Amino acid sequence: MSDRLSGALLAVGAALTIGGSFTTLNSAVDYRDKEKDEVVVESVSKAWSHRTEFAEGLVSTTDGVVDRVQFDGVSLLVGIVAALVAAVFLLVGPGRRPPLRRALAVAGGAVLFGTTLAVVMESVSVTQWESDTQEMSFGPGFYLLTGAVLLSLAATALTLVGGRRSTPAAPALPQSSHPWPAPPAAQPYLPGPAGPAGPAPSSY
């Protein structure tokens, strides 16, 4: 039962990661002055792309938009694949070799946890640069990846706990009152029947 639940958590975590990799992680808006009456620069960051829109006349591009490729999506893709493979083995995998399934589940959960947590922490660190003339906020992708972090952590912990509970205990050895084998009991000596009398001793 714990394996099934772990597989379901990993599957949902992978789905959240897919959604988080294509939606906005964080956005920033720069204003011209402290009164924030006019936007100068607006940027939107996603796992695969980063778009910056400048006010008219600030850059030489025709539309004032600069698009760049980001590679956070590559690490998220690795976590998604690892989590889905582990979820399939836990949900519909064969009943044999449960230690192998659980080891794969722990590995998949750990990979998903590490990749999503790295992107979440990166988004948090970016928002620390907020100033009086700049506003930063989190997007839907940030919250989806945060949910994936929690689900992957729960799935990994559940797999470890379930594996320990299902390990059969070693049978107890019978206890003996003697730490070493007892020696055989002594047999009483029985003299044989008396034989005929021998010759009389000589006087010489």
Topology of helices and strands:
Layout: H1 2-22, E1 26-31, E2 39-45, E3 49-54, E4 65-69, H2 72-92, H3 98-126, E5 134-138, H4 140-166
Antiparallel strand pairs: 1-2, 1-5, 2-3, 3-4
Helix pairs in contact: 1-2, 1-3, 1-4, 2-3, 3-4
The average pLDDT score comes to 80
Spatial ordering of strands, largest sheet: 4-3-2-1-5
Helix run count: 4
Largest sheet: 5 strands, antiparallel
Net shape: elongated
Structural class label: alpha+beta
The radius of gyration computed from the alpha-carbon positions, rounded to a whole number of angstroms, is 38 Å
Give the beta-strand count. 5
How helical, in percent, are the residues?
40-55%
Q: What proportion strand?
A: 5-15%
Q: State the end-to-end CA separation.
A: 104 Å
Stretches where pLDDT falls below 50 for ≥5 residues? 167-172
Order of helices and strands: HEEEEHHEH
